[in-house]
Specification:
This protein is globular. It is 72% helix and 2% strand. By secondary structure, the chain is mostly helical. A two-stranded antiparallel ribbon has the order 1-2. It has a single domain, classed as DhaL domain (Serine Threonine Protein Phosphatase 5, Tetratricopeptide repeat, Alpha Horseshoe). Helix 5 packs antiparallel against helix 6 and helix 8 runs antiparallel to helix 9. It has nine helices and two strands, in the order βαααααβαααα. Bound molecules: adenosine-5'-triphosphate and magnesium ion. Magnesium ion (MG) binds next to loops. Keywords: Kinase, Pyruvate, Transferase. This is Phosphoenolpyruvate-dihydroxyacetone phosphotransferase ADP-binding subunit. GO terms for molecular function: glycerone kinase activity; phosphoenolpyruvate-glycerone phosphotransferase activity. InterPro entries: DhaK_L_YcgS, DhaL_dom, DhaL_dom_sf, Dihydroxyacetone_Kinase. Its EC number is 2.7.-.-, 2.7.1.121, 2.7.1.29.
């Protein structure tokens, strides 16, 4: 099973719903170690993405991802807009003109997006950033691709890795962004941006599983 452009649109549209629902939780996390705007940033950004998606719904995956990235970049202030924007723009470049994505393609675009974020944010492993979840997700998908796992199973494995990685951000001391100003006081809190990465991947897994269930029936 592959990821189609239609599923990509469904995924990003659903992300807008999820970020509307999770806005307060994300804000709460960011209030503990940041400035309390992460929920609003993600909600506002993905609302704009959802508004833009119908105009590119019949285009290829690269255009859908690039439009998402440009929209996040231009509509979200702070660190996370440019960072998530970069993720989607780099992912779009890696998607090139592919009409659909195999698991190997998905692993490749997520790896490209992750590398783009890490480069832009100068994030290192253990800095307590969204990259601390992006890296394990891209690694898990790449391993699953070499094992030829079905896409839905690979995404389930990636979610397990993402959940563990998100929990692992709790004892980390932040070394990037506003949270780093807290020094040791940033220890003991889950990273908001990393939480958003899990939400996005979880949403993708749900979209893929729903379509693989309906294709079986
Ligand atoms: N240099 C960085 N590299 C990667 N991710 C980062 C970096 N700085 C911050 N982040 C991520 O951004 C999240 C905060 O996003 P938010 O929407 O609150 O923007 P912000 O308030 O401008 O960020 P910050 O206060 O961290 O600079 C963090 O939880 C972290 O995951
Ligand atoms: Mg913030």
């Amino acid at each position: 099973m592959n990821l189609s452009s239609q599923q990509t649109v469904q995924w990003l549209t659903k992300c807008a719903e999820i970020f509307a629902r999770e806005q307060d939780n994300l804000t709460e996390l960011d209030r503990a170690i940041g400035d309390g705007d992460h929920g609003l940033n993600m909600h506002r950004g993905f609302q704009k993405v959802a508004e833009k998606l119908p105009s590119v719904a019949d285009k290829n995956i690269a255009i859908i991802l690039k439009t998402t990235g440009m929209t996040l970049l231009s509509s979200v202030g702070g660190a996370s807009g440019p960072l998530f924007g970069t993720f989607f723009i780099k992912a779009a470049q890696a998607a090139a003109d592919k009409p659909y994505l195999t698991l190997a393609d998905l692993a490749e675009i997520i790896t490209a997006g992750t590398e783009g974020v890490a480069m832009r944010g100068k994030a290192e492993p253990g800095d307590k950033t969204m990259c601390d979840v992006w890296w394990p997700v891209s690694e898990s998908l790449s391993i699953s691709a070499t094992q030829n796992l079905p896409l839905d199973q690979a995404l389930k494995e990636a979610i397990i890795a993402a959940r563990l990685a998100l929990e692992a951000t709790v004892p980390m001391q932040a070394r990037k962004g506003r949270a780093s100003y807290l020094g040791e006081r940033s220890i003991g809190h889950q990273d908001p941006g990393a939480t958003s990465v899990l939400l996005m991947m979880d949403t993708l897994q749900q979209i893929v599983s729903a379509s693989s269930a309906s294709s079986v029936n």
